[in-house]
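Reopening this one. Same input as before:
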Amino acid sequence: MPESKEIPFVSCPIRSEDFELFKSIINQGIDSRLEAFTKSHFEVSHHTSGRFDFFFHDTEIPLLLRKLSEMDTEIADQWESDILETEYGIDCFDGY
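Same output, byte for byte:
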């Protein structure tokens, strides 16, 4: 049986709006649906100084998308759109 994989999904400067967004999503912990990121991991980049890497497990991408949509900010909406298009080939401007 094939294993699920982790992918280096987001790498961003520690002092950036993107970092603050993903940090906020991760720090929400268990939500009202009793879901949290339990298979993903997050760490200071070992390759580039001043960056943070968010490794999202592929089975937790739907959770990430839901949490981004619940943030209801322009930057969260843009990340949600980019992830849907990259991961699933869905163009958000055409509806989904």
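So the earlier flakiness isn't reproducible anymore. For the record, Helices lie at 17-27, 61-71, 74-88.
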